[in-house]
Design brief:
This protein has 186 residues and is of the alpha+beta class. The chain is built from 7 helices and 5 strands; from the N terminus they run αββαααββαβαα. The strands form 2 sheets. Strands 2-1-4 form a 3-stranded antiparallel β-sheet. Strands 3-5 form a two-stranded parallel sheet. The model has no long low-confidence stretch (mean pLDDT 92).
């Protein structure tokens, strides 16, 4: 049932956002050198690696680390990168990852391949069995502001309490967070 929900929602969203995605891709290409999409290695269900697309919001020479580990995040942003991140428009290409089954609409955000502390904690608590999501319980309860152990506690809550109603609640809360650009630090 969850997979069918993912396919219907992601497919519908791709239809709605197709033209805006083309415009964003052109804007990325016109405002900075490099491709419109950035593909990062992420940890998916059962700790399998997959390639996750995002609209590129950072320069092509940015180190492949979690953004909070960069000394000065703003110096790495493209001219429209800050806007893309604040509006979460950089996440739209992940609809593709949902369609191909690497991600779900709702689930724990996928860890970077080198976030060993996050991966280990999620594995220890069984969270790694979940398909990662475009949005999740930790996203709507703190997002960038949460330390990793707190994110994992929220991921565990989601694992233990998942229902379709919880997914709908998370989606509704996500809309509010995106509209108000809340809890985004970089």
């Amino acid at each position: 049932m969850k997979r069918l929900f993912d396919l219907v929602l992601a497919g519908g969203a791709l239809l709605v956002f197709a033209l805006p995605m083309v415009i964003i891709a052109l804007a990325v290409r016109l405002t900075s050198p490099g491709p419109a999409l950035y593909w990062s290695d992420r940890v998916g269900r059962d700790n399998r690696l997959f390639r996750m697309p995002k609209f590129r919001s950072m320069r092509i020479d940015t180190p492949a680390v979690a953004t909070h580990l960069l000394a000065d995040t703003t110096s790495w942003l493209t001219p429209i990168g800050g806007f893309l991140r604040k509006s979460s428009l950089d996440e739209l290409p992940q609809l593709w990852s949902i369609l191909v089954g690497d991600m779900s609409v709702v689930g724990p955000r996928p860890a970077l391949f080198n976030q060993d502390d996050l991966i280990a904690l999620r594995t220890e608590h069984g969270v790694h069995r979940l398909r990662p999501g475009l949005t999740g319980w930790a996203q709507v309860n703190g997002r960038d502001e949460l330390p990793i152990p707190d994110k994992v506690v929220l991921d565990i809550y989601y694992l233990q309490n998942w229902t379709p109603a919880l997914d709908i609640r998370i989606l509704w809360m996500t809309v509010g967070k995106v509209i108000h650009a809340k809890d985004i630090s970089h």
